[in-house]
Design brief:
Number of helices: 8
Structural class: mainly alpha
Strand content: under 5%
Distance between the termini: 98 Å
Largest sheet: none
Order of helices and strands: HHHHHHHH
Number of strands: 0
Number of domains: 2
Shape: elongated
Radius of gyration: 31 Å
């Protein structure tokens, strides 16, 4: 029952996404796309990811495998999506990876404990959930601070370029012209070297035709 309750909660939480301040989507009459079924290998990868980063979640998924195929499919699909997202972050923004992984683990733990609380209404579970919610908010603040620092460094670099003095600007212009002139001269020499050969072959062809 806990496993089924767990995956009846909103899917974006397990993917490590924060939708707490996003507006509700407008109601539409469009048909929702059918979720793509994972391959057996992808399901196994999702389980390995869960075992490594949230073993208790992996145990619940194993229970769902035999008790509810639809619940198992949904759970592994959500974890697969989260793992892919984290993998992209690790490849493109490795400095963010640890914080994003921690955020996913917090979300996953909150979902699991909330599913248990739904079944028992245990005050101790509520207290634990509140602690995790506070930790998740602090983690979010830390990520925002890190992003602010990164942007501040970038702005400092831009200000440095914008605020170049006359001497620095002239030095940059001189360097750019030197490179441009060098490339142009090299190209012109190469063209002159090829031209006589072409002319000689043309004259020889005319002579042969007579």
């Amino acid at each position: 029952m806990i496993a089924l309750a767990l995956f009846s909660l909103s899917a974006p939480m397990i993917a490590g996404q924060d939708n707490s301040r996003k507006p509700l989507p407008a109601k539409t009459t469009s048909v929702k796309p059918v979720p793509v079924k994972l391959t057996a290998d992808q399901e196994d990868e999702a389980l390995r990811f869960a075992r490594q980063h949230h073993p208790e979640l992996a145990n619940l998924l194993e229970q769902l495998r035999s008790k509810s195929s639809s619940g198992f499919s949904r759970g592994t699909r959500e974890i697969h999506t989260a793992a892919q997202r984290l993998e992209r972050i690790q490849e493109k923004q490795p400095a963010r990876f640890d914080a994003e992984l921690k955020n996913w683990q917090l979300d996953s733990n909150i979902r699991l404990l909330t599913a248990r609380w739904t079944m028992s209404q245990d005050p101790k579970l509520e207290e634990e959930i509140r602690t995790l919610l506070r930790e998740r908010q602090q983690s979010k603040i830390d990520r925002l601070k890190a992003e602010r620092d990164r942007l501040a460094d970038r702005l400092a670099q831009l200000d440095s370029h914008i605020g170049m003095g006359t001497d620095e600007l002239e030095a940059v212009l001189a360097s750019e012209w030197e490179q441009l002139a060098k490339r142009s001269t090299t190209t012109a020499k190469a063209h002159k070297t090829r031209t006589p050969r072409t002319t000689t072959r043309t004259k020889q062809s005319k002579a042969d035709s007579h």
